[in-house]
Amino acid sequence: MDKALFKDKCNDLSRGDVISVRGYAHRTERGELSIKAVDIPKLLSPCLQPFPIQEFDRPEKDKQALLDADRHVQLLSTKNVMETIRCRSTIIRSLRNFLSRRSFIEVDTPILGAVASGATARPFETKATEFLDRRLALRIAPELWLKRLILGGFEKVFEIGPSFRNEGLDKTHNPEFTTCEFYTTHTSLNDLMSMTEALLHYIHLQVSQEHTSSLATTLPVLSKDQFSGSFPRLPFIPTLENALGLYLPPLHSPDTLSTENALKQIFHQKSLPLPQLPTIPRLLDKLSAIYLEPRCIDRPTFITHHPECLSPLSKSYLDPITHQKLSARAELFINGREIANMYEEENSPFEQKKKFDMQNTFTARAKQLVAADQSKSSALDQDETLESDTSYLEALEWGLPPTGGWGCGVDRLVMLFTGKEKISDVLTFGNLRSVTRVKGGR
User: Fold this and answer.
1) Whether residue 285 has pLDDT greater than 70
2) Alpha carbon distance 196, 26 (integer Å)
3) What's the alpha-carbon Rg for the chain, to the nearest Å?
4) Which domains can be identified in the chain, with CATH numbers?
5) What's the whole-model pTM score?
6) Which of 169, 296, 417, 432 supports an S-S bond with 333, CB 3.0-4.6 Å?
7) Do 340 and 333 form a contact (C-beta atoms < 8 A)?
8) Residues 6+ apart with CB under 8 A from 169
């Protein structure tokens, strides 16, 4: 082959061009793995845009430009972006393998429905040309659909797929996100927590084997020791009361206004700012964020047995020690961030109806607070609501076996194992702001 012709043809190529080269593998004098060409390179597809320089060569002033670039440009120039997506694939595959090996059946449930149920959140609403007189909603969780399958006779089911919540964007939230949920009959809360420990250990093992050399993680909780053995368990009420040095009022009292005022008094005593809409669930959530979640930094930790008012789809019981109505529920926190939620499912249609009504009471109270102070209307726009799904209540009348349910945000799981601090970094095409951005503008 004429070397002069070879160099001349190579000079016609630009960085980013897709080419075909025939030859054999060899190493250069410096030891770099290369191809020793025996034919002139063929241009398959030219790159007509200025190809971005590699990350290690990039001046500081160009880093923001890369953040603003389309995702395919980031993938071309930043190896870590592509490796994060590969790691995401490993984690999702690990979830499937773990559950499939335990005889779970993977299913698909509706994304569009008449009611957005299964969680407390504000849904996206739309219409279909076939049913212009009906309001449709994108699902906020697949939970009630999956439990209908348990009602129909399946014993172990799971689904990995998208859900949608019409709420804000921040470092850990995106309106479109991926969840993994599974449901299994005759399974207790302790069983669910043990499965969670085994699952996290398995995922850690798979990620370590496939990505240790190519993807550096920065979170200290990712050591092997952190995922071995049982995780600490913090009971919600006793741990919170111990941290406060105070007893909580009876949270299941029918006099919800007195309970709300008693919780506000605790905030006053501790000089804590009230949430914008201080309903009972929001007050308890705020106390948990201040006093409980920071205790889940050093290693994976379960917060267990939440007040009934925080868990409307969970079984509940009157605790003989705290004398509070508690749920058979646990949340897993790692590095102070919620990773998974699990509970024994409420299977009484009568109790479930009461819990739907209880949530409606809290929503009505939030609206009442806004009516008294219009400056809080923006908070009401983001207020979490749980719609009463009457068809689900009717389905429960067929008899739901004792069932354990489990769910996790896949995106947060990927953030954990890749050391990313922003959810947009682990989504294939970034967050909603990125995918809806008009070319050339913000």
Assistant:
1) yes
2) 47
3) 26
4) 3-75 (no CATH), 81-432 (3.30.930.10)
5) 0.86
6) 296
7) no
8) 175, 431, 432, 433
